[in-house]
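Recall that a protein's primary structure is simply its ordered list of amino acids. Everything else, from secondary elements to tertiary packing, is in principle encoded there. The following example makes that idea concrete.
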Amino acid sequence: MNGLVILPKEIEVYYSKEGEFEDPTVHKNELQKNNKNHFYVHRWGKTKNDKYKGGNRAGLDFVVSDDENTYYSYLIRSALINGNLIVGPNKVLKTIESLTDLSYKELESNTIELDVVNFSYDVLFSERINLNQEGESSHYELRAVLCDNLYREKESKYRYKEKMITRFIKERKMSSQQALKYAQEKLGYIPSEIRSL
């Protein structure tokens, strides 16, 4: 976008369709439906003319919905932007805004050009972060983090790193030796829960 290369590293899925899957945490702003390959900057209301959220509440979603009846977007929690790791939804938004020199409205009006990136890294999952509402959907693993060579770095302050690695190791039913090696590679240490496997 405008010469900016954005590689999402951590996303959260927000999906709601009446009668199918109704997630109460979806903003249900009109820009989150039938608006594929566009950004949606978080607003206080449900229309494209409502006020943008300010301060740390502001974030940026990549919209994937191509249906008038489905709200479907990915909150970009962390991304590699022009080669620099940016962690945190508000920091991602502010970095993109700063590097493109575009207003929020201009960010939203641009169609995002997608490129396929081939990689062989694991994707780890957890519950979404900082949801103010309880309910069934708040417990689903709708947060995905790319477990690449930056995962273990101090700058990548992804929440629940150890929990995601431990869950992944258990789901893959790794041998004790494989589990110890994987944890050391990805975290830089071996959690006690992994040592006891």
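The mean pLDDT is 92. The first strand starts at residue 6 and ends at 17.
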